[in-house]
Specification:
The chain is 51% helix and 14% strand. It has 185 residues and is of the alpha/beta class. It has a single domain (23-184), classed as Rossmann fold. The strands form 2 sheets. Strands 2-1-3-4-5 form a 5-stranded parallel β-sheet, with helices on both faces. Strands 6-7 form a two-stranded antiparallel ribbon. Strand 6 and strand 7 (162-163) form a beta hairpin.
Length: 185
C-alpha cells in the first residue's frame, strides 16, 4: 500500500480526515463560505433594481462598517449612478428628511441593532422611504424595518474589549451587488 508501517498508515489516515474536516465555525474561511451560501441572486437583483430606479440613494453605517458605504458610492458612480453617504448623524437625518418614496436608504449594521442605524431606519420608515439593509444572518430589528434585506455571515467577535468581527463577508455581499449593478445597468 506504500506505507512504511502501521503508524505511517494511521498518521496518513488522520491527516486525510483533518484535511477533509469542515472548517471551524469561527474561522474566516467558514464565514466567507457561509456568506456565499447566503447570497440570494434574486434579492441581489431586487436591491440593484431598487438602487437603479431610485432618484436618490443614501448609504449609512457607523464604526468599522462605515467605509463600506463610501466604497458602494464609488462603485455606483462607475455606472453613472449618483449616490451619497455621510458618517455624520445630523447630515444623514437632514438627507433622509428630504427623501421620498422614490429614493432608497441603504443601511449596514452587522448586529442589526446599532442605535444610530435604527434611528435612521425609523425616520425613513416614517417618511416611507424604502430601506435596503445588510446585516449578519440572524433575526434583528433592522431587517424587520427593511423592504429588502441582504445577509452575510459575520458573527460578533470581541477580544480584550475590542470588536474584531470579520468584515470580509460584508465586502463579499457588496461586491456581488456592485457586480450585478455593473453588469445590468
Amino acid at each position: 500500500m506504500g506505507y512504511e508501517g502501521f503508524s505511517h498508515l494511521k498518521n496518513a489516515i488522520r491527516d486525510e480526515i483533518e484535511a477533509n474536516a469542515a472548517p471551524q465555525e469561527n474561522s474566516a474561511y467558514f464565514c466567507i463560505q457561509k456568506t456565499f451560501e447566503l447570497l440570494d441572486p434574486e434579492v441581489i437583483e431586487i436591491a440593484a433594481k431598487m438602487i437603479h430606479d431610485a432618484k436618490r440613494v443614501l448609504f449609512f453605517a457607523v464604526g468599522d462598517t462605515a467605509p463600506f458605504c463610501e466604497l458602494m458610492v464609488r462603485n455606483l458612480r462607475v455606472s453613472g449612478k449618483a449616490a451619497e453617504f455621510s458618517i455624520h448623524r445630523h447630515e444623514v437625518i437632514h438627507a433622509i428628511e428630504q427623501m421620498t418614496t422614490h429614493d432608497v436608504l441603504f443601511l449596514i449594521s452587522l448586529t442589526g441593532e446599532t442605535k444610530q442605524v435604527l434611528e435612521m431606519a425609523k425616520i425613513a420608515q416614517e417618511k416611507r422611504v424604502p430601506i435596503v439593509s445588510l446585516t449578519h444572518f440572524h433575526a434583528n430589528s433592522l431587517q424587520m424595518m427593511a423592504a429588502v434585506h441582504l445577509y452575510c455571515y459575520a458573527p460578533k467577535k470581541v477580544k480584550n474589549g475590542y470588536n474584531i468581527t470579520d468584515r470580509t463577508p460584508v465586502m463579499i455581499v457588496l461586491q456581488a451587488l456592485s457586480q450585478y449593478y455593473w453588469d445590468h445597468y
